[in-house]
Amino acid sequence: MITIDLNGQQQPLPPDSTVSDLLAAIGSDGKSVAVVVNEQIIRPENRPSHLLQAGDRVELLIFAGGG
Amino acid sequence: MDSLQIGSYTFSSRLILGTGKFSNSTVMLEAVRASGTQLVTVALRRFNREQAEDDLFGPLSAIEGITLMPNTSGASTAAEAVRAAHIARELSGSPFIKVEIHPNPQHLMPDPIETYEACRILAQEGFLVMPYIAADPVLAKRLEEVGCASVMPLGSAIGSGQGLATSEMLNIIIRESGIPVIVDAGLRSPSEAAHAMEMGCEAVLVNSAVAAASNPPAMAEAFAEAVAAGRKGFRAGLMQKSGSAVATSPLTSFLGTC
Lengths: 67, 258
Known about the structure:
The complex is a heterodimer.
Chain A: E1 2-6, E2 9-13, H1 19-25, E3 34-37, E4 40-41, E5 57-65
Parallel strand pairs in A: 1-5
Antiparallel strand pairs in A: 1-2, 3-4, 3-5
Chain B: E1 4-6, E2 9-11, E3 15-18, H1 25-35, E4 39-46, H2 57-61, E5 67-71, H3 78-92, E6 96-99, H4 112-124, E7 128-133, H5 137-145, E8 152-153, H6 167-176, E9 182-184, H7 190-199, E10 203-206, H8 208-211, H9 216-236
Parallel strand pairs in B: 3-4, 3-10, 4-5, 6-7, 7-8, 9-10
Antiparallel strand pairs in B: 1-2
């Protein structure tokens, strides 16, 4: 297993996991989630091929209520 | 047709609604529908699998005719706001961005220097930039010059319900502005929204006044009617004020008088 930083918390992942694998593992269809890996936005078309590395800082963001 | 034009977008509603502080998303969505709004603000937050119901993208997108305007709330610098705007655009597919940079949670007053810098960058990148600002006519003009789509000066502090405390400065901003002026923050009652529209604002943005009402959907509808009435009043042309009484009935040739 490798460990990434997911929204500020340690998250174990199998080696060779992609961004799409991560989204599936946490139960998100990815449609309404923005993915940022090491401050780079990963667009939906690139998620199936973007491999996550140990130590990557991953931010998953959604739209919540705000004024 | 009297419509609000921002960039290439045309809105028949001049009420912009915020989606924060509602007791739950069902009430918020009812208020959005009742308001007839076509532009709603949302905030970026970290995904939390235990609070999946917080995700508003799907439910809001399902309402016909709604455009999302993400805000940069949480940013305390221009760089953070620009980064948030890039992420928000990926999610929303909308060019609208409400630039909101308030570093001090005690008063939530917007940082004019960081706001200006973020707006300058984002306007160059093609965003429809809608900055939340203090009611400062000089800053408003500078933001117009760097390509903002509107300016959104505060009526009073966010969530305070103090109404149009800045009305004298708002009048100057409206008089000088070549882009839509939208009062954002501080309104409490529909009559204040009507007043802002009568002054010549192109739209108003409310959140707390609706979210914290006893009946948010009913208050949303009341604000929509007030905004429409205020706009009609503005377009109809308000009479001039007079320092003394001006009779509406004849004062001569009455009964036995000459």
